[in-house]
Each structure stands twice: as C-alpha cells, then as structure tokens.
Amino acid sequence: MKPYKLFVFTSVLTIPLSACLIPEPTDYYVTPALSGQLLDSVTQQPVTDVSIYLTDEHQTTSDSTGKFALPPMVVSDDMNKRRNKEQLQFIYEYADIMIESEGYQRRLVNVDGMTLPTPALDINTPVSINMGSVYLTPLAEGEHVYDRVYQYTEMMRYCQPTESQKEIDCIPVPEGKTYEQVSPNRPIE
C-alpha cells in the first residue's frame, strides 16, 4: 500500500473513533427551580411585573396573578470549562435571588438557606422549591426603591403547622407530605 493511501485509510478510521472518545457536555443544576406568588404585605393582593433574578441572564417576571417561576441555573461542563464539585457548590452557596419592583422594598433571599426536598442538593438532578406566598413590603409615598436597604432572608425552612407565611419567612410543606416527614431536612438554626 502506498504511504499516502495508508495515511488516508488510518485517518478515516481514527477520526470517527476519536469523536466517540470526546465526552458529551454535562449539565449541572447548581440552583433549584423556584416558584411562588408575590403578594403585597398590606393589601394581600398579587404584585405583578416584579423582577426575580439570580443574574442578568437568569431572571423572570411575575405574571398578572403575582406568580413566578424561575428555572434552575444550569452550568454546562465541557472540554473547555471543566468544573469540580467544589466550584459548583460555591455557585450554589453564594446564589441569592433578588426580588425587585418599583414601590416595594427589595428582597434578597439566600438560595443556600432554603430547605431542600432532599438532605443535599444533587447537581445532577433538577430540584424544585415552591416558595408559596412571598410578601413584599410597600414603600411609603414618594420613597424610591433604592432609598431603603433590601430585606435579606438568610434561612427559609419549612413552615410549622401553626405558622403563617405572612408572619414568618418559611416554605410551605409540599402537598401530600406532613411537617414531620420533611422537617429533618430544614436548615439548622
């Protein structure tokens, strides 16, 4: 066999084989999907057109009933950007959602402080948290949204049966579960 034919023959065999060895990018879910309903803490009415965001690229807006759904933040791991578990955990631990609207005090909620439906975040499986009712404090007449410091929520555990979300920042117990079934997964206070 002539040398150039051998080169072409081996190239034809090795290119498809090397393509099989390149791993597919992996998607990691570094934050849970969040949903809920934004309500005015005084009137109990839904608050519409509110921005809920983690980053400029990862955001949503509340609808006409005050409901919102923020998908999980997904980080893709490919050959150009290899991430280890510690880097992904860092993103999760420092993720905060900002809830911001003209006429209301801004709210910042630490995602790492929210109770998960499982004891730990599994970055390979999407997780959803229904925050239930999230109450926004109206600003005084003439007060600008940046005149007042945002309200920060560091920890959000499951609501106990005697607690109201209006008085305490907590997550409603998922439908079909009891507080006793989910309470071991609440953050340590």
Describe this structure in words.
Helices cover 17% and strands 27% of the residues. It is built from three helices and twelve strands. Strands 4-3-7-8-10 form a five-stranded mixed sheet, with no helix packed on it. It has a three-stranded mixed sheet with strand order 5-2-9, with no helix packed on it. It has a two-stranded antiparallel sheet with strand order 1-6. The radius of gyration is 23 Å and the shape is globular. About 3% of the residues have low confidence.
List keywords for this structure.
alpha/beta, 189 residues, single chain, 3 helices, 3-stranded mixed β-sheet, 5-stranded mixed β-sheet, 12 strands
Short description:
With about 190 residues, the chain is an alpha/beta fold. Helices cover about 15% and strands about 25% of the residues.
The residue-averaged pLDDT reads: 80
Radius of gyration: 23 Å
Give the strand content.
25-35%
Low-confidence stretches: 6-10
Count the strands? 12
Please tell me what the overall shape is. Answer: globular
Largest β sheet strand count, sense and barrel closure = 5 strands, mixed
The SSE string, one letter per element, is HEEEEEEHEEEEEEH
N-to-C CA distance: 75 Å
Q: What oligomerization state is this entry in?
A: single chain
Strand order of the largest sheet: 4-3-7-8-10
**What is the count of DSSP helices, taking H or I runs of 4+ residues?**
3
The amount of helix comes to 10-25%
Structural class: alpha/beta
